[in-house]
Amino acid sequence: MFRAFRTFGWGCFLAGSLAAFAQNPLVPQGGETSILASLAGDQVWPSISLLPSAGVIAWQDNVIDKNGSGIGGSILNSSLFVGGHPFCVDKTTTGNQINPRVQLLANGNIVFVWQSAVGGVPGIYARLATGTAKGKTAYGTNFYTIDTRVNTYTKDQQADPAVAALPDGSAIITWSSLGEDGSLWGVFARKLSAKGVASPAKEFQVNQFSQYNQRKPAVAVLPNGNFVIVWVSEQERYYNSVDVYARIFTAAGVPVTEEIPVNSGTNYCDTPDVAPLNDGGFTVVWAQKDLAVSTNGWDVWGRAFGPSGMPQVADFRINTFLFGDQYRPKIAAGPSGDLVVWTSMGQDGSREGVFGRFLQGGTSAAGSEMQINTTTISQQLHPAVAWNGINNFLVVWSSFAGASGIGPSGFDLYGQAYTLNTTQ
Amino acid sequence: MLLKHIKCAGVLLGLAAAQQAGAFTLWGPVEAWQTPDLDYSSPAGAIRYYYHFVEPGADDHEPGAPKNFGEGSRLTTPIVTYGYDDTFLQYFGTKGVAAVDSAMAVLNALPSYSRANLANYLTDGNEQVNYTAQALELLDIKSTVLFLMAEHMGLMGETHVWDLAGRAKYATPACAYEYFTVDRNYDPITYDPTAYVNGRLIDFFIWDGCAQAVNVGDAIEFPADTGAPRYTSVATGGGLQFGAYYLGMTRDDVGGLKYLYNPAHYAFQSLDSNSVVSTFTSSWMPVGTNAITGISNFDGLIGGAGKITFIKVAFDSLLNPGFTPITYTYSMPFVTNSKLTQVKVSRTITQPDVLFTAAFLVGAGPPLMLSDFARSGTIIPTTYASPGGGVTPSTIAANELITLNNVGPIYYNYDPFFLDSLNYFAYPVFNWGTFDGSTNTPIVYPQGSSLAALEAEVLQGGAPLPISPWAPVVTTSTNTTTGTGAGGGAGAGAGQ
């Protein structure tokens, strides 16, 4: 097997790598910051959840549980820096724990959700911890449940968990499950109460069309307490179609709508994310492959929907740099709009970089596409984004840090905060 | 002609309508119609244009060609020995040996393939990433050997989910072609052709080199999602990303082995030349007349071996050229005159079946190419000739020579960019490593290479590099800012 240079062509991107911040609705607050300082091993796939006073971060870590991949967690202070030492989230460290998600609940407690192969076949696990204030002083000791398996179907594997906080202090957790709906992957969900009790007795099926794959769900809670789950469905519209669908449920998990088609085009779609709108609707973003211009690869698209699930606008492309892959978007809702972030190949002049753009009112792209990472050499990837409820978006990502002087430290977590530009 | 095309498309749609979880691809000798212009490795081992020049990194040359269902080749011995020669031992040392041994242990830990419960094997998440190793572009030896052995056992990769079966040029306009595309990917449970591999939808586009005056076309697979890796099956050589490592074999890999090596899966095949049938018993023959001994080059309707066990044998070409022959004895299912029986086989080896070596594998350009590995083996064609000209399974001989590239850490400079040591990207292009998801620091080969030095080179770019016997070679350039760059050479980038 011959293997050619992955570095080919990177230099071609240098000239186009300058990010423009002029007229941008967002203003960087300070510079790029190391979230956790330099830790041994690789800290990747971060997830964050913020409140005005504090926040929490989780990540995948190949050191922290001393047994393959584990889940790390830490408390962020109001300045969006780590307020305590990193702690290990997974109590059962057997096997690999990957794909973490973290969510602050309505009562201030924290739910961590992840994918674990502790039983041999990967499943979805969750663990609850008390509020952030205690976390500052008793980090790593404030869990009040053990690792709880969320899925009840165990005949085959589960993957790609997502979580959102419901108004009653519980969490809604969704994931992909292989074989459970009778045909390849399907999307399922289950509530986890503030006490760590999962309900209903068996997870409920989210997708109505169950043939082929339904996968990679995301979830957001709407202002009226309902929640919306979005996912990818294959061959639902026609042979080889790959589209994004959404469905709204009450807080009790009762369907409010049928499946709602999200994208209107015919290109392949993937990795959707969703955020609520102030009017009760929601905005969906996703990656979409440009099948007409193959060199453009994947782009980031979005579309806003009303409270009933009716589309408010046509699909719109969010990234402006088209060459190569812009993929795996994440979205967070602020008071006047959303911040969408994604990974872009080669755009910052050196492998992966993190880019973002503001969506005014969640319905249209506003301002320029922003390069979020300042350090560009090697890889910056796996971005996550959250709004702190008052004045800041925080974007975190994983960046190759290499040697720290005390030995190899691999990937570390970095962050960049933004405030809304009130001078416009 | 148009009607025929429409019919063909209808067949493909119908096949794809059935729901399958995943699939495997089989390989065997290249057939006459599998020509270079359809981008097959024709003859065996030749370059596949698209995967060599257009999108390097996948399976650019292969030991054979994909097969239709029922035509795939396989080993006909349940025991395959392996060993290392001095070039491998010198470069990769004991840690390299341990890495290869651990790959063989994964395969040996599989149950008898026909009894394997496919639900026990991952469709998603089998390829994990050590992110530091990824940033340093390290290629995992253990995972690479898993691929090589999957191929050696008869499985082929996902660049053959879709293949061209025909390509015809119209007189006008220029570069107007029509194509036949076929599905060479089979579900491990239903054995139906499918567009899914390990539960993942694989689509294709047809690439044609006509516009570049290249007489090659190919159906190029791509997954209908953004997920990495691009390929999931271990049997796909180009599927292994830098920094990635396999946890084991995927569901579809095991499904393919389950199909190929099922003892009840009979095919007219040969035993290799090292094998002698020592006893041949058949229940339908009168007692006393059924013993046949000493048959070499035995062939007939043979069942699958059930499982392949890999056994390490001592071999040192430098110190011990006189390898002590080893004889293994086992039974193989055999059908004669519609009766199931067993043949006892004695197989004597005079060197390891699979021999791991190391050599310098950098190709002359342009474009510059380097090979992670090279391998050569033997196909024993079936002795059965179908009157209709159809193809039956051949035998993959147990012997295979595998050579891993021992070029060492290697870097890339690209004129007119990054001409001098102060500005070039000091990115490592490729290096062998051993790593997993643990806290253990990745091992970089040859032993003695420093992970920390590699990291520093990645991050420092044009800054002075640490003095190392493996410092990068600097491109000769008139713009070089120091006097040490002309002609490059080890250490040229250091201390400036």
Structure notes:
The complex is a heterodimer of chains A (424) and B (496). Chain A is an all-beta fold. Chain A has one helix at 132-137, and strands at 2-3, 26-34, 43-50, 55-61, 70-76, 87-88, 97-104, 110-116, 123-129, 148-149, 158-165, 171-178, 185-192, 198-205, 214-221, 227-234, 242-249, 260-261, 269-276, 282-289, 298-305, 316-317, 326-333, 337-345, 352-360, 364-371, 380-387, 393-400, 411-420. Chain A has a 4-stranded antiparallel sheet with strand order 2-29-28-27, with no helix packed on it. In chain A, strands 3-4-5-6 form a 4-stranded antiparallel sheet. In chain A, strand 15 and strand 16 form a beta hairpin. Chain A is globular and about 50 Å long. Chain A starts with a strand and ends with a strand. With 496 residues, chain B is of the alpha+beta class. In chain B, a hairpin with a 7-residue loop joins strand 7 and strand 8. The interface between A and B is large, with 72 and 68 residues.
Query: Gap between N and C termini of chain A, in Å?
Result: 55 Å
| Uncertain regions spanning at least 5 consecutive residues of chain A | 1-22, 403-407
Count the DSSP helices of chain A. Answer: 1
Percentage beta strand of chain A: over 45%
Q: Strand count, sense and closure of the main sheet of chain A?
A: 4 strands, antiparallel
Structural class of chain A: mainly beta
The helix/strand series of chain A, from N terminus to C terminus, equals EEEEEEEEEHEEEEEEEEEEEEEEEEEEEE
Would you tell me the overall average pLDDT of chain A?
A: 89
Strand content of chain B: 25-35%
Q: Give the beta-strand count of chain B.
A: 27
Would you tell me the overall average pLDDT of chain B? 80
State the major sheet of chain B: 6 strands, antiparallel
**How does the overall form of chain B come out from the CA principal axes?**
globular
> Which strand order does the major sheet of chain A show?
2-29-28-27
Biggest interface, residues from each chain: A-B, 72 and 68 residues
Tell me the structural class of chain B: alpha+beta
For this entry, what is the oligomeric state of its chains?
heterodimer
Helix content of chain B: 10-25%
